[in-house]
Amino acid sequence: MLDPKDIGEWQHEEFYRFIAQAYDKPRYILHYKTDAPLNIRSIFYVPEQKPSMFDISRELGSSVALYSRKILIQTKAADILPKWLRFLRAAVFKKAFSCCRKLRDVLQKRLIKFFIDQSKKDPEKYAKFFEEYGVFMREGIVTIAEQDVKVTTRLDTHPAMITVLEMGAARHFLRMQQLAKTQEERAQLLQPTLEINTGHALIKKLNELRDSQPDLAQLLLDQMQKRN
Questions:
Q1: Which of 2, 44, 209, 227 is the most core-located residue (most Cβ within 10 A)?
Q2: What domains, with CATH codes, occur in the chain?
């Protein structure tokens, strides 16, 4: 894959039209290369054309072409980007197969940072983009609701704690755009992890109640999460 500085505007336009099967030009271009934590070579395009109702539909498939060792593996790789970024037209090149979840997280964080940078670089241009594509951003906040649960050895006297991975760009994005109005929406985007102390009496009791009284177990778990 060519170095970003070696690719001209007309080449980007031609490649965008090829992978997007479109006739407009890209309004934003992100050429992202990194060797850590994963070896990734990627190009992302935001279409100049305003999204249609079909584009907004969640039934629309991925528009990410996935390459490995210069071989096209998938023309529409569904797991490379989260659903809310489906408006992007992109090509991702990686030397070896890796965890899709980790790849998705790395790309999502980089794209969030890219949009923050663009909003500072040219506020007027970004405002027009947000006016037309803001629906996708809002969707991202309200639909990223997954929460991991894992056993921890970091707790002694407490039954559980909630941790959030380092996502400085995402936090800044929330503050700047004021998209997440509620505590629940902010938590959803930051993807918290519930870490439990399996040696604690409360966790042991919850495990017993899970089968005998599942409703009560869920109620207790909800209260734990609120307290954390």
A1: 44
A2: 9-143 (3.30.230.80), 146-227 (1.20.120.790)
